Prior knowledge:
By secondary structure, the protein is mostly beta strands. The protein has two domains: 45-149; 155-294. Helix content is 6%, strand content 46%. The protein is built from one helix and 20 strands. The strands form two sheets. Strands 9, 10, 11, 12, 13, 14, 15, 16, 17, 18, 19 and 20 form a twelve-stranded antiparallel beta sheet that branches. The longest helix has 19 residues, at 2-20. The chain is globular. The protein starts with a helix and ends in a 5-residue tail after the last strand. The model is unreliable at 15-19 (pLDDT under 50).
Amino acid sequence: MKKLRLNATLLLCAAILAACSGGSTEIVDYSTPTDNTPKLDMKAAVYQAVLPSGNILTLTTDQPSDTAVTGAYTIKANDGTLVSSGVVSESVSQLKLIGHKRKLCSDEALIVSVDSTTVNASSDEAYITISGDKICSGTLPITTPMLIKRPTTATMYSRGTIGANQELALEVISADNINFVGTLTLNNTSLPVLAKGTVIGTITTQDSTTDSAADPDVGQVVAINDPLAYGFLFNRVTNFSGHFFYADDSITKITGKVRTTPTAPFYMNEIRVTAEDNFTTQPEMLLSNPTVRLDYNPL
């Protein structure tokens, strides 16, 4: 009887080992601790904080990974005057803000630290501390302003065909009328999956030398209702999925320039998108005179 029990036990152990030796085996890496501290959700988001000076800090962001952040920022006076602007990088818990080159306050360099103990995940808000080398709207450090996620209800949308099998669409939102965050979509009916990604754009003046929207580091950054506003551009696409050209293409970079109407009602009447397939630049995709468009009413 003992021998029978021993044989049964050995068979059971063998069955368990066989089941665990398959491809479903989970290997847990305990060498890297998991960061479970509360974090703000900065995917395709707009956050704002009122500084002690009364100026408003606006962050237009996206998360290309779990904690990494990319985006743009502005600091505006409460009368709407643009004080400074630049790019956002680093992480959701400690953001780096660097002023645009060759602009007013181009040497502005800030660190926005989020107090994880005050993060309210349900309403996406938290207290922050702003430190760094220079800020054009006050003295450093600035402590305990509340960073709050803004509703993104004001939308500008354009869609139209760019070829026999392709339809291009762009939807953008803004809280300060200078920086935009949005979704770029390409529907290629010959492919089974939509191509989609998040873009962050900056409104600029016209570049008279190339007749195109200037890079923010070169041209003048303005509000969409500025008489000199030409359109906006984006220099990268985050959280990209799908394919643009072929079922097996490998998209390595996407950039775009958008022309907007010079007067209200504002809408996108021309969209130019350039994509790299495995680091090879493909022909520009042009959408002019879109068949579907939604006017934009600045907040």
